[in-house]
Amino acid sequence: MAGFIAATISLPRMCSSATESPVRFLGLVTALFAVTLLHLPEASSSEAPAPPDIVVIMADDLGFADLGSYGGEIDTPHLDRLAAEGLRFSQFRVAPMCVVSRVAMLSGRAYNGGGDQAYSQTTPFPKLLKEAGFATHMTGKWHAGKPNPRNGEVFDNFFGFMGGMTDSFVGGPDWFLNQQRFTDFGPDFYATDALTDTAIEYMRQSQDAGQPTFVFISYNAPHHPCQAPRATVEKYVKRYMAGYQAIQEARVERQREMGLIDADWTPAEPGAEVRRWDDLPRQRQRVEAQRMAAYAATVDEIDQNIGKLLAYLDETGRAENTLVLFISDNGGDYGNGGRLHDAKQIAWKPGGNPSSSNGWAWVKNTPFRSYKHASFDGALASPLIVRWPQGIETADGTIDHTATHITDLDPTILELAGVDYPDRHDGKTLLPLAGSSLVPILEGRSASYEPQPQFSWFEHSRGLLYRDWKAVQLYDGPWQLYNLETDRTETTDLADEEPEKLSELIQLWREQANPALMQRKPALGTQLTQRGWGWHRIQRICKNKLVDLAPDNSKVAEGPVTQLELRFSQPVTFGQNRNKSIRLFAVGNERSPVWELSPTPNHPSHGKRHVVFDDIPNLRPDTAYFVEWDPGWARVGDTPLGPLNDGAYWWRFRTPPASP
Description:
This protein is of the alpha+beta class. It is about 25% helix and about 20% strand. It is built from 16 helices and 28 strands. The strands form six sheets. The chain has a ten-stranded mixed beta sheet with strand order 7-6-5-4-8-1-9-10-2-11, with helices on both faces. Strands 19, 21, 24, 26 and 27 form a five-stranded antiparallel beta sheet that branches. A hairpin with a 2-residue loop joins strand 13 and strand 14 (about 430). Helix 6 packs parallel to helix 9. The longest helix is centred in the middle third of the chain and has 34 residues, at about 280-315.
């Protein structure tokens, strides 16, 4: 793959094969060192030290606990080496969604705070580095708004794709090599390899020219489709037959042993949407193990490529003065998926869309609650590993517990590069950076770091963290309040006990939210109770016309379940598709529904907004159930409903335990 990419971008290589003569290899290294010296300024005791080369590596949808150095069981020896030789952060947060995080990192302000994707009041920091003499390169997923990474203004070189995801074996039409569309997806192409190999070639090119270098490597993995070589996938299947709970508990124990979390933390419990492993039929357990194995394999492949990058830095003598930062763009996600299709996804073949369930998403985000898209720490907590042998003054392997944020990376990188952040740039007045430099922490002076309010938003979630307090709001539910000093995993809502503190944080959120953002729905805190997770997904297939349902989605029912209810904003009609049905299943038996109906115009709910199905059988206590329906089984107004597939789109609930 390295040779393939080198030929594609026509860049010089120091060594074409690992099997070349050691003498020739040593000669080439010596020659490279000599050429590099020619480009270095003459040493002087009064000169400032050379700025570091900077490599930012971003994984996509990686959970807080997936890496070995963060408690995971996935094989990540090279990232674990970075952590052992550098600095780990236990309380680094990003934004709830990939595009929001990427804009925040590149602009130094929360997504909404500097002009959304247009950067109307900000500028991407790599552009400032480039103007200051850095060679700037990017490989991988852009998905970061209006600036064009391909035209040379922000990056000298770009190789990757523009959208939110890609097929790792055959790419897609949004792949580019600078200005040219890239289509050379041969039989040996694998995106994670290609992005790393190309980044190394770019680094080699600019470092040969004597330029300080910035590289942004932005992987698609482990975002779905979770694709990886077969051998890597298959080594994990047996490992995950242990199930959600066992894997999560083992992660918690390792996190405690390494001092990443406190021993007295209460790990977040899974929501009712997460099935108990023992409830699943054996075939579903095998499918779930295969899904997580595919996910783990993509992380494993990232780690193997980090190994190639570290080997390059070691071989060229660049490791000492290279700052390497590794993060995820948001917390773990549950992928698209669907009950009838999950088993058919083959992770080592192009064209499919392997993904992992929300049971595994809960595991990925151990010990926190919720998932990508929310503003709880399951969505926001990310690994941050920083290694810079020449510059970090803390002991190797240190874990820092300061609450830091993705907007801190911009001022940190600019400070270390010796680049000032301007008041005006490209004819526009820039807003100040929202974060604080991490340099005091890198120097072992964590107490000198200046915490700033951490703003969070993505469509249906909102959050504001300042010092030890965090306010969170999801869907149109009430604002919640957590004291993270005593409740890091957000298990106890203090909104009723601390109304003044909650009001203070809500006001801070409003001050940082621009008017356009404030007008976006759902409205703030209009419901007295919190909707269960997945509401935004079922709303999508109901064309945003669903008002309520019972039993509530992703919750344990408050009493015996005797009927299914849905309320819509417009009248519902049946009978347009006679063969379309709605079905109710117990999780333990996915083959045979406990109830099924193809409603006709004679049904009592036809033409009404309140749909009631009161003929379901008696349901067992303490049992997980799910509803499934065919697309078009009903119409709301003139709009047919989309499919409910118990995968990406679910209506799940659990019956309460039997009365004593």
